[in-house]
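---------- Forwarded message ----------

FYI, see the Transcriptional regulator record below. Original note from H. follows.
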Amino acid sequence: MDAGKLYAALDAEREANGLSWRQLAAESGVSTSLVSRMGNGHRPDLDGFIALVQWLGMPAETFMIWPEEKRPKRRKLSLEAQIAPLLRAQDELAEDDRQHLIDMVNMTIRHFRAKKKGR
């Protein structure tokens, strides 16, 4: 498990929401000492890991390190498929605004891909 990647994601989400580490710990249901230890490079226990990835709303496998020979044989998700759930999770936006953002992102990605093919 890539504890550094998890900690970086937590830090980014914490800052984006204007939270202190203590508030993040309380909201996610872990102890402040756990997030403090993670800041010092320690890995969370399984229960802490689950609580933190659930708080982030991200799949646990995002933070997994796979030995090359054991890496699951899955195709890589498109950028659109990765971004859409993030935009859909934005509760402060109305549904039509979320869909508008998704449509704009998808249109922009298609534009860049077409431009790249034209080179």
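H. also flagged this: The helical segments are 3-16, 21-28, 32-39, 46-56, 79-88, 95-117.
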